[in-house]
Amino acid sequence: MSLENEILDRCARLLRDAERDVREVVKLTDTYPVLDVADAYRIQQRLCALKQAEGVRIVGMKMGLTSHAKMQQMGVDTPIYGFLGSDNAVDDGAAVDTRVLIHPKVEAEIAFVTRDALRGPGCTASDVLAATDYVVPAIELIDSRYENFRFDLPSVIADNTSASRYVLGSRPTDPATLDLQTLGVVMEKNGQVAEVGAGAAVLGDPAAAVAMLVNMLSEHGQPLEAGAVVLSGAITAAIAVQAGDNVLVRGDGIGTVAMRFI
Ligand code: OOG
Ligand code: MG
Questions:
Q1: Amino acid 75: pLDDT
Q2: Does residue 15 lie in a domain region?
Q3: pTM of the predicted structure, to 2 decimals
Q4: DSSP annotation of 88
Q5: Does residue 14 sit within a domain?
């Protein structure tokens, strides 16, 4: 059953206001138990339109829950996607103000930047590699708008998959020179190793996660645009951060990326 447009609009507004006011809200399915995944993507689209009306540019897309570590951590078992806005981007090494965040966590990811647009269905990992301009290591900062960072699949999709901030490494690498499956990634917090993993944690290959995104978008008649930034999904579990923390991610052969918190 599909919820009425008026309710979908109200849900998008609630999530937008929660982010702006730095306030947790009850997860949507507590209020609307019939809310399903299709409704949730409709709410996410409305949230995207609200941000665009405020002047935010859409700069890319993100995949989420593409690794077992993340699915287990969040108790959810299907990959999901969201959008990245110009307001989500942070410069490499820049400080992020924790006062405008609810309960931030960071994850290590591999980001793709597309040279050509991609369209599904039937998009494969090799199609993705052929259309990729470069890859970089990335840190995604997620900040669920829901109480205690707890949600179910429809609720987290509506909340733009907890998207909040992201930072890309500054050294672009041609993926043709890499083996993304065996590429090792280390996440350090305050100089200590916090999480380790390899590209294969993300659906066997981060490029496969991007292909899945393209195929999911095609179900809504949407392409993945040329020049888009794509976060392919966390390789490791997410870790909580607070003011004073420094986070660094290193990827074998692709350099480092950092975010610090004040
Ligand atoms: C949902 C977003 C997950 C990822 O990389 O797996 C995600 C969440 O865990 O809050 O961005
Ligand atoms: Mg992520």
A1: 87
A2: no
A3: 0.97
A4: G
A5: no
% of the chain surpassing 90 pLDDT: 95
Whether the CB of 203 sits within 6 Å of ligand 1: no
Residue with tokens 């609630």: 14
Amino acid at 134: Y
| Protein residue closest via CA to atom 4 of ligand 1 | 64
Averaged pLDDT, 44-61: 98
Q: In terms of residue numbers, what domain contains 176?
A: 58-261
The residue whose C-alpha atom lies closest to atom 3 belonging to ligand 1 is 64
- Helices 37-53, 5-21: axis angle to 10 degrees equals 60
> What would the pLDDT profile of 100-145 be if each residue is shown by its tens digit?
999 999 999 999 999 999 999 999 999 999 999 999 999 999 999 9
Inside any domain, residue 43: no
Q: What's the 138 CA to ligand 2 centre distance in angstroms?
A: 9
Shortest-distance atom of ligand 1 to CA 162 = 10
How far, in Å, CA of 259 to CA of 262, rounded? Answer: 10
- Residue 190 Cα to ligand 1 midpoint, Å, equals 22
Ligand nearest, relative to CA of residue 159:
1
Q: Give the chain's domain count.
A: 1
- Segment (H or E) for 41: helix 37-53
| Whole-number Å distance between alpha carbons of 95 and 101 | 13
Model confidence pLDDT, tens digit, residues 60-97: 999 999 998 888 888 888 999 999 999 999 999 999 99
* Residue 120 domain flag: yes
Please, which pLDDT band fits residue 1 given cuts at 50, 70 and 90?
low
Domain CATH number, residue 128:
3.90.850.10
Query: What is the CA(237)–ligand 1 centre distance, in A?
Result: 9
Query: Would you tell me how many other CB atoms lie within 10 Å of the CB of residue 5?
Result: 10
Q: And the tokens for 48?
A: 């995207």
